[in-house]
Design a protein that fits this description.
Blueprint (H helix, E strand, L loop, with lengths): L4 H6 L5 E3 L8 H9 L4 E3 L12 H18 L4 E6 L7 H16 L4 E6 L6 H9 L3 E6 L4 H9 L4 E5 L6 E2 L6 H9 L6 E4 L5 H9 L4 E4 L1 H4 L8 H9 L6 E5 L2 E5 L3 H11 L4 H10 L3 H7 L23 H9 L6
Parallel strand pairs: 1-9, 2-3, 3-4, 4-5, 5-6, 6-8, 8-9
Antiparallel strand pairs: 7-11, 10-11
Helix pairs in contact: 2-3, 3-4, 11-12
The structure holds flavin mononucleotide.
Amino acid sequence: MNKNRIKQILGTEYPIVQAPMTWITSAESVAAVGNTGGLGTLGSNAGQKTITNDVKETSERMRNEIRKTRQLTDAPFAVNFIVPVKGMTAQYFNYSNVILDVMIEEGVEFAVAVAMDTPDFSEPFKKMKDAGIKIIYRDNTPSIEKAKAAEAAGADIIVATGYDGGGAIPSYPIGTFSIVPMIADNVNIPVMAAGGITDNRSVRAALALGAEGVYVGTRFIASTECPASDICKQDIVQTESTDLIQFSITSFNFRTIPHKLACELKGLDDNGASPEELNNKLSGTGGGYKRAMLDGFLDEGISGVSYAVSLIKEVKSCKDIIEEMMLGINFK
Ligand SMILES: Cc1cc2nc3c(=O)[nH]c(=O)nc-3n(C[C@H](O)[C@H](O)[C@H](O)COP(=O)(O)O)c2cc1C
């Protein structure tokens, strides 16, 4: 059997990445994954409890969280970098730029670079490569064309995300079973599967589809070390996949557990409300995922989860989650 290229690139025991999930990641959750042989990722706002719109403050908060992670683990970890895209506001460009500067200054080894739309990654990828940062690239709406472009621009690993995934979901409803082999057949660099990976069976399926590793979000929310509130974790354990609802704001599609604000947003979207109206409603209570998932006010925010949520029956430690997922699989 060939050597597993993801393990080689990441330098980890297992080819698993804990995906960035903005507020509900932290130094503690990232270190727990790293200490079990996976690669954790600090999302934007990792470890924070309050909102700031100050760009400098945002970068200093991330610097502190990176340093805190280093105190908790010797394992490598990644930081989420949102690739600037056409149409992004100047403020978002600034956030992306300062986070990249902090990553370079702090010697972070891996970037989970994520693009929401048509990305212009040439400049940031060059900056990362020059700094020796390895790039795990995920397009929110993956395609063969975009995967090839990312490979040509210097990505080290491509993440193929299926419609099953949690967070902002792809624009095309192509499931994990279809997108993973589509991308794996068309790039030379290794591919990780994302979207609905929750247990040992899904890891084995991902490998059979041509992925060399897995990229996991929702399953890690229901972990002991995740900073999400206990209310949110229990809500995930009790939610069935058939309960979930969706709404869109421009090209951003959200799947969420149907609590009060989420249902109102869906109602507005169904009735043709403008993106401004939806955005105002979503941010009015202090930030979607933060309010529901981190603070535990389920009716006042949104709880983004994967279609595989029915398979999550218990809150477990990151160690137990990873070891169960990897049980009996022989990665060279
Ligand atoms: C609550 C939530 C928040 C997320 N926030 C981010 C984010 O800030 N940045 C990002 O690149 N992806 C984000 N994602 C997407 C995940 O990184 C990942 O692609 C997804 O969770 C994988 O699918 P899974 O949830 O089925 O494992 C988020 C996902 C969830 C569930």
